[in-house]
Amino acid sequence: MGFCCLTYNYQLFFFFFCLLSLLFPSSFSSSFSSNPQCSALLHFNNSLCLDRDNSPPLDSFASSFYYRSNIHMCDNSYPKTGSWKEDKDCCSWDGVECDNATRHVIGLDLSCSWLNGSIHSNSSLFLLRHLRSLNLAGNSFNPSLISSEFGNFETLTHLNLSYSYFSGKIPYEISQLSSLVSLDLSYNYLLIIETPVWKRVVDNLTLLRELLLDWTDMSSIRPNSLMNLSSSLTTLSLHDCDLRGKLENNILCLPNIQTLDLGYNFNLEGSLPNSNCNFSSSLKFLDLFEIRFSGELPDSIGSLKSLNHLNLQYCNFTGSIPTSLGSLTQITHLILSSNNFIGPIPALLGNLTQITYLDLFENKFTGPIPSSLGNLTHITYLNLYENMFTGPIPSSLGNLTQMTYLDLSQNSFRGLLPLSLLNLPNLSTLRLYNNQLVGPLPSHICPQLDLIFHLIRLSLSSNSLNGTLPSWLFSLPSLEMLGLDDNEFIGEIGEFKCNSLDYLDLGYNKLQGSIPRSISRLVNLTYLYFFVSNNSLTGEIPFLICNASSLEVLDLSHNSLSGMIPKCLANFSVLSVLDLRMNKLRGTIPATFAKGNKFRNINFNGNQLEGQLPRSLANCRNLEVLDLGNNKINGTFPYWLESLLKLRVLVLRSNRFQGSISNPKTKFPFPNLRIIDISNNQFSGSLPRKYFKYLKAMMNVDESEVGLKYMGDYYYQDSLNVMMKGLYIELVRIQTVFTTIDFSNNRFIGEMPKILGRLKSLKGLNFSHNNLTGYIPSSLGNLTNLEWLDLSFNKLSGEIPMQLAELPWLEVLDLSHNQLIGRIPLGKQFNTFDNDSYMENLGLCGFPLSRTCNNGTKQPTPSTLQKEEPENGFGWQAVSIGYGCGVIFGTLMGYLMFKFGKPKWIVRMVILEQHIMLRRLKNNAYKRGGRK
C-alpha cells in the first residue's frame, strides 16, 4: 500500500521551504540537492501515496469503465517514484527529464505510477516552472479539481492528465497555455468544460495539434465551433462528450486532421457530404459511432484514401454500401454494424487486402457472401451476425488463416459445415448458430486436431445438424464454451476430456444414454444444459457431479433421469439455477440448503418426489422461482417461505398438501409474489384473506414494464407451466408483470374476500372446483388487468356483479356450476361469452342463454346488486341491531358488576352470549341479503 500521505500543514511547510530554496539556492545546498527542483519533486512525491489499487469508490459503471480503461492504458504500470533517492541527481530519476545546459526539469512523466491523493493549488509540483511536458495520466488524484495553477506552466507544450479521476470544471487558466501542442484531459470522472473556457481554448491555443477531451461534459458547446479549432490540428478526440445539435457536414475537411473521434455523442445529428469538399487527404482514423445520420452513405467516403479505421456503427445509414469503399485500400478496421444497409456485399470489398477487422452485424444484407472475401488474408475478425445472407458458406473463408473470430450467426446459410473452417489454425471463436446448416459433423479430424487447439468458443446451435457427437468435440483442450442445442443429434454423450469447459448446452436434441461419469472432470463448468425436447437421457444423476462445484446453472430438465437428487446440489455455494423438472426423480428433496446460498430458481416440477418440504429452503434468500408442482409432496402450507423477500413464483400444484392456510407469521408475507399456484391439493378452510392483503406485487401496476422485461438472466430464461384461460400451457418466458392466482381443485369453503379487488395487476384468477359460498364480490370489477376468471364448480349465489362487465381485457369467464341468479350483465367483453360460461346456474337468464328474463327482472345495476359484506364480514343492518342489543345488554351487565363486582361466571356468560349473538346476526344478515 506504500507511503503515508503528509498532512496539509506539512505540505504547506514544504511549499514555502521549496520556494525559499529556489530563491536562495546556495543557502540550502548543504541540506538538499544542488538543484532545488529536485526538492520540489521530492515534496510532491511525499504529498501522495503509492497504491497499486488506486481506484476510488465510484458508481458501478464508472468503476468498471476505469478498470477496463486503466488496464488497457497502464499495461505495464509500476511506481516510478519508488526508485527516487535524495542522494542522487533528480535528472537521473525515472520519469524526469532535465535541460542539459540549465539542469532545469523540463519533462515529467509519471504516468501509470500508482500515485494516489490530491493535487492542491499549493503543491510543490507548480514550482517546476520550466516544464515543457507533463504527463500524470493513469493515476488516481481523487478527489481533485484541475487546479488553476496548471495555467502558470508558460512553457508547457504537452499536458496529459487523462485517466486520473479529476473532476469538476476545467479552469479558465488552461486556455492561457498558448504554447500547448498537445492537451489530453480525456477519460476523467465528471469533468466539465463550459462555453467561455471552450471559446478561449479555441481562440488562444492556436498551436494545438492534439486535443483529447473524451468523456468530458461538453453539452453546452455548439458543434459548429469545432470548425474554428486550430488549422494545425491533427487529432481531435471528443468521444462520449454529450455534444448536442447539428454537426457540420464539412467536419471531414479540417485541413490536417488525421484522427477524428466524435463517437457516442448520440444527441448529435447530421449528414456526410456527397462531394469530397477537399476532404483531408491525411485522415486515417474516423469514428462517428452512434451519431444520428440520415440517408445513404455517400460515394465520397471512398475519397479518404489514407483511412485505416472507419467506425459508422449505429449511425442510421440506409441503402446499399457504396462500391467506392473498395477504394480504401489502406483500411484495417471497417465497422458498419447496426445500421439499415441492404443488398449484397460489394465484391470490391475483396480489394481491402490490408483489413484485419470487418464488422457488418445487424444490418439487412442479402445474397451470398462474395467469394472475394477469401482474399482478405490479413483479417482476424469477421462478424456478419444477424443479416439475411443466404447460400452456402463459401469454402474460400478457409483461406483466412489469420482469423481468430468468425460469427455468421442468425442468417439463412444452408448446406454442410465447411471442414475448411475447422482447419483455421488461429480460430478461437466460431459462431454459426441459427442458420440452416445440415448434415453430420466430421467424425474424424485427427490430422487437423492440432490446428484447432486454439478453439475456445464453438456455437452451432439452432441448425439442423444430425448424426452422433464426434469424440473430438470433447477433447479440445482450450474449449470453454460449446453450444450444440436445438439440432437433431442422436446417440450418447462421449467422455469429457476438455477440463477447461465452462459452458455446455446440448439441449433440444435426441440424445440418449446416461450422463457420463467424466462430468466430474469439468471442474470449471459454470453453465450445464442437457434440457428439453426429445432428449431421453436415462439413469441417475451421477454423484460425481458433486465435483463440479463451480456450477451456476444446472438444467437437466425434460429427460428420463431416475434415482434421487444428489444431496450435494443443495450445498453448492454459487449454484443459481437448479432445473430438474420433467424427469422420473424420486425420494425426498435434499434436507439441507446451506445458509448464504445463491439459489434463484429451483424447479423440480413433474417428478415423483415425496415427503415434506425441508424448512432449510427458507435459507434461499435470493430465491425468485420455486416450482414443486406435479409431485407427491405432502404436509401443510409452507408458511415459513413467506419471509423470502424476492420470491416471485410459488408453484405447489398437484401434490398432497392438506389442511387450512393459517394467518401469516410475518408482518409483510410474500411481498414480491406474482404467481401462486396451489391447485389440485387438499387445502381446506377459508381462503387466506390476510395473505391476499399483503401481496403488494399484485397490487401495483407498472405500465412502463409491460412487454419489456422478463424473469431470468442472460444465460437462463425462467419458464413456467400454468393453467391459463382454460389451457395448461408453457410460458417459455415469464414477463415480470405476469400475475396469477390459482387455488382451484381444493376444499376451500366460505366466501371470497372483498380484498381481492386490491390485486389490480392480476391477469388470472382461478378458484374453481372448491366449496365457496356467498356472493361474487363486486370489488373484482377493480381488477382492470384481468384476462381470465374461473369460479366454476362452487356454491356461489346471488347475481353476477355488473362491475365485471366493465373489465376491458377479460377474455375467458367461467361461472358455470354455481347457484347464481338474475339477469346476466351486458356490454363490452360480456357480449362475447357463450352459454358454457354460465351453464348449470338455473337462476340465470338473458343473453347468451336461451332462458329469457321475466319483465320484472331488471338489468342489474350497482344500486340493485346484492349488498355485499364489508371486509369485517358485517352489513349495516346487522351492525345496527347488534348496537341496540349491545347497549341494553351492556347497561344491565354494568349495573350487576357495579352492584356485585365482576364474577368469573358473568364474564364467561357475556363472552359466550356475545359470540352466539354475533354469529346469529351475521347469518340472518346474509339471508336477508340473498332475498329478491
UniProtKB/TrEMBL annotation:
<feature type="signal peptide">
    <location>
        <begin position="1"/>
        <end position="29"/>
    </location>
</feature>
<keyword id="KW-0325">Glycoprotein</keyword>
<keyword id="KW-0472">Membrane</keyword>
<dbReference type="InterPro" id="IPR032675">
    <property type="entry name" value="LRR_dom_sf"/>
</dbReference>
<dbReference type="Pfam" id="PF00560">
    <property type="entry name" value="LRR_1"/>
</dbReference>
<keyword id="KW-0675">Receptor</keyword>
<feature type="transmembrane region" description="Helical">
    <location>
        <begin position="874"/>
        <end position="898"/>
    </location>
</feature>
<comment type="similarity">
    <text>Belongs to the RLP family.</text>
</comment>
<feature type="domain" description="Disease resistance R13L4/SHOC-2-like LRR">
    <location>
        <begin position="269"/>
        <end position="384"/>
    </location>
</feature>
<keyword id="KW-1003">Cell membrane</keyword>
<keyword id="KW-0732">Signal</keyword>
<dbReference type="InterPro" id="IPR003591">
    <property type="entry name" value="Leu-rich_rpt_typical-subtyp"/>
</dbReference>
<dbReference type="InterPro" id="IPR055414">
    <property type="entry name" value="LRR_R13L4/SHOC2-like"/>
</dbReference>
<keyword id="KW-0812">Transmembrane</keyword>
<keyword id="KW-0433">Leucine-rich repeat</keyword>
<protein>
    <recommendedName>
        <fullName>Disease resistance R13L4/SHOC-2-like LRR domain-containing protein</fullName>
    </recommendedName>
</protein>
<dbReference type="InterPro" id="IPR046956">
    <property type="entry name" value="RLP23-like"/>
</dbReference>
<dbReference type="GO" id="GO:0005886">
    <property type="term" value="C:plasma membrane"/>
</dbReference>
<keyword id="KW-1133">Transmembrane helix</keyword>
<dbReference type="Pfam" id="PF13855">
    <property type="entry name" value="LRR_8"/>
</dbReference>
<dbReference type="Pfam" id="PF23598">
    <property type="entry name" value="LRR_14"/>
</dbReference>
<keyword id="KW-0677">Repeat</keyword>
<dbReference type="InterPro" id="IPR001611">
    <property type="entry name" value="Leu-rich_rpt"/>
</dbReference>
